[in-house]
Every structure is written in C-alpha cells, then in structure tokens.
Amino acid sequence: MLKASSFTDKFKTLPQYVIPQHFLSRLMCAVTRWKGGKVTHWIIRQFIRHYHVDMQVAALSKPTDYNSFNAFFTRALCADARPIADGIVSPVDGVISQLGMIKNNQILQAKGHDFSLTALLGGSTHLSTYFNNGLFCTIYLSPKDYHRIHSPITGQVREMIYVPGKLFSVNKRTTTVVPQLFARNERLICILETAIGKVAVIFVGALFVGSMETKWAGTITPPYQGKVQSWQYLSNELSLQCGEEMGRFNMGSTVILLLPPDKAHWLSQHAPDTALLMGQALAQLAT
Fold this sequence. Notes:
It contains 8 helices and 18 strands.
C-alpha cells in the first residue's frame, strides 16, 4: 500500500517538472491583481466560503472592501487579532511541516528526505557554518491563512539574499516526492541580528506565488532574476520589534526559520502538523 501511494504521489507531481512554472506564476500575479468589481467580490466570497476563512479578525471584514483578489489575500488583521507572546514566536499563521535540529549541514524535509543547509542559504558557507547544529522550523501557509510574515524576535535586518530557483508546489505531497525541494525553489533569505545572535527568516516561493515582497524593499519578485543577489544593511538601519511585519506572500507558500545552536529550544507541544498563529510562542530562550 505504501509503495502504491508513493507511486501515485510521484505520478501526480510529475507535471510540475515540465510546466512553465514561472510563466504560470506571472500569470497568477496578473490575474490576482485584476480589479473586476462585482466579479472579484463574488470570487472572494466563494473563496471565503470554500476555505472557511475567518474574516472576523480581518481589519476589513467585507469582500466588497477589496478591489482585487490579491488585496484580500494579503489582508491586514485587526490590531489585537494576534497577541505577541514572550520568547521566539511564530512569524506566520500556518502548519508546522517539520521542526528539529540541523545535523551535519542537513535539514529534514520529510520522512526519509533531507536537504542541504548550505544550498538552502544560496551556497553561503559562512551562514551554513553558523547555523549548523542549530534549530529549524518549516511552516506551511495554506490558502486560508493570513499571508503576512512577521519578525519572530526583536532584532535588526542586516542582510537580505535573493536566490533564484524553481517554483514547485510546497504542499505535503511534493515535499515527500521532490528531492531538495526547499533548496531548489526560489527564496528570499532575511538575516536578523538579535539578542541570541543571527536568526534567519526564509521566504520560500512556490507554484502560483505571484510575488514576494518585504516591508523595506518592496516587491522582490517578479521579475524573476537569474542570479543570487544580496543587500547589506547597517546596524540600526532596519530595526524590527518582535511581531512587527516583515513582508508578505502574494499567494501561499512556506517560511523556514533558523536559530543558532544552544540559544533556544522548541516548545514541547509543537510537532509536525501542529497549527500555529502568528505571534504564538514557538521557542523558549535557553537559560
């Protein structure tokens, strides 16, 4: 039975290797920004109904408040909708795919599948050396989730790295089938300097993710670049409080959080398939 299921997953994932991933994502980017009036509002209503989206916590709660689907998808929440806990908090609403310790420069993607920390970090050996033996948490954002990304800890943005790549889907099926998925997909790496040292918040692009953007630099993709790009920031140039907005996905994807060794530990109640809300306590600082 397991072998049949594995074959089925591989078969269903196969088209993703041949479809024009970036073209389809550019198309999605344009479609979701279309201002279609009553048609757009009807689509938003159907989406809310199908995915059981909780609009009571949205700053604008009516479908007619949004002039495009993307405006709805990246909606802001009420100021008190997500209390910020102590310690290190979840940067997003989502579900934990995997979490644990980084061992031998490898991160667990799914049962029986690891991927390279160095590759995830765009080939940066100094960053991979720094985070090796530290902690990782991979959080999947489903279509119904709030799609803004927030800082998991107070700190300063010191570096941002754009790494070009594929745009495979990041759902559970593809994570069990596509090798090195998170190190192959396009991603944006934000390095924060914090009280516990460097912390990495990584935005991972995916199929139909129309764009990724940050609060301080605006839209990073599209256009899709063909080479690694990096931005350096001075100390105190970009300070973020814990829970402060960093950026957003225009359509859904995944965030990977990296913590340095011996500085924190994941709270015991968190495990794969645990649902999280942005601001919820995720890790406790080491004493």
